[in-house]
Amino acid sequence: MDKSSIQKYNDVILELLFPSFCFGCNKEGTYLCQDCKATLEISEYNYCLCNKNPIRLAPDHHSNGKCQRCQDHKLSGLYSALPYKEKSLTRKLIHNFKYEPYVKDLAETCAGIVVEHLVLAKNNTEAIWENSVLVPVPLGKSKLKSRDYNQAGALADELSQVLKVPVARDELVKIRETAEQMKLSAKARQENLLNAFAIKNPAQIAGKKVFLVDDVYTTGSTMAECARILKEAKSTQVWGIVIAREG
Ligand SMILES: [Zn+2]
Ligand SMILES: [Zn+2]
Hints:
Belongs to the ComF/GntX family. This is Phosphoribosyltransferase domain-containing protein. Residues 155-240 form the Phosphoribosyltransferase domain. It comes from Candidatus Staskawiczbacteria bacterium RIFCSPHIGHO2_01_FULL_39_25. Helices cover 36% and strands 15% of the residues. It is α/β, with parallel strands linked by helices. The protein has two domains: 1-39, no CATH class; 43-245, Rossmann fold, CATH 3.40.50. The strands form two sheets. A four-stranded parallel β-sheet has the order 1-6-5-2. The longest helix has 15 residues, at 3-17. The radius of gyration is 18 Å and the shape is globular. Bound molecules: zinc ion (ZN) (2 copies). One zinc ion is lined by residues 48-50, 55, 66-67, 69-70.
């Protein structure tokens, strides 16, 4: 048996032992069946980073992923596949991926959704991925310990396989714990994150375009802070890739 046959065989055995169920309709055999996937609104467009009513960008946005009012933002742009709405299937998928029961295998489902967006919005071109690396947004040590894996890292690994872009693993690290961002004001958020991240080996980042990978983009302050220090490490551009964005 060749390697892929063994993998398929293993998948069949695993499915028998631990069957998966669709998070939308409970159908057995998958985490997201085709019918439920079709109800998701996978975006065909790229939008600016703006927090309120983000502006839809023109198809030739690739040199500039931002509108006029967002030019000072540290990120060059953001690729987001879905809206992150209350009580949505998207929320349910991400919640099960990120929190208990930590369905790690959802990484593949979520990466599939992201790739579909990249293709629909015409972001999957050689020019875009040239000389780039995927960098997962890191977790602090205590969170990583309680969760046992970084969902952003699992997503980056899956994306890497499809996009053929390497993952710069453990280069961007979180060096101190921070308070939950959700509870803080915009100014307190920035202070909370200041110097919370570090780059281990700047040579891995220098001269490269970085795609920061995370599950959800909320206010963007975490990605902005990561982008700031990645730029200090001489990355040429820093973009974000997420499954969903709030607002
Ligand atoms: Zn379903
Ligand atoms: Zn904007």
